[in-house]
Amino acid sequence: QVRLVEAGGGLVQPGGSLRLSCAASGFTFSTSIMSWYRQAPGKEREWVARITIHSGSTSYADSVKGRFTITRDNAKNLVYLQMNSLKPEDTAVYYCNAAFWGWGQGTQVTVSS
C-alpha cells in the first residue's frame, strides 16, 4: 500500500521558516521523482518544487525560488521542503507527490501575524 505522510506544517509569522517532511512507503522511493504542491483556499493546486531520483536536479516555481529548498534522503524514504522567508501568500495546504504513485493527505501551512 502506497503511503505518503506529510508533517511539519503550522502557524508561522511572516519572515519565518518551516520545514515540511514527507515519509514515503509502499513503493520504490529511491527511483521516484518527488514533488511538493500546494493549494490555497479557493485556488487550484499548484506545483511548488521537484527533485529528481538522485537529487541531481531540483526545480522550483518562480514564486518560491530562492526561498524554498527541496531535498531527499533515499536511505530514510523522506523528502523535505525547507521554507524560509515565508509570506502570507504561502498560506496553503502543502502536498507531497510521488510521480506515478500518488499524493499525501496534506499539511496546513499558515503564515500570519
Overview of this protein structure:
A hairpin with a 4-residue loop joins strand 7 and strand 8 (78-83). The protein has strands spanning 3-7, 10-12, 18-25, 34-39, 46-51, 58-60, 68-73, 78-83, 92-98, 102-103, 107-111. The mean pLDDT is 95. It is built from no helices and eleven strands. The chain has 113 residues and is mostly beta strands.
The amount of helix comes to under 10%
Separation, N- and C-terminal Cα atoms: 40 Å
- SSE succession: EEEEEEEEEEE
Strand content: over 45%
Average pLDDT level: 95
Number of contiguous helices: 0
Taking Cα atoms only, what radius of gyration do you get, to the nearest Å?
13 Å
Overall geometry: globular
Broad structural category: mainly beta
What's the count of strands? 11
Low-pLDDT residue intervals, each spanning 5 or more residues: none
Main sheet characteristics: 7 strands, mixed
Give the structure's gist in a few sentences.
With about 110 residues, the chain is mainly β.
Task: Present the secondary structure layout.
Blueprint: E1 3-7, E2 10-12, E3 18-25, E4 34-39, E5 46-51, E6 58-60, E7 68-73, E8 78-83, E9 92-98, E10 102-103, E11 107-111
Parallel strand pairs: 2-11
Antiparallel strand pairs: 1-3, 3-8, 4-5, 4-9, 5-6, 7-8, 9-10, 9-11
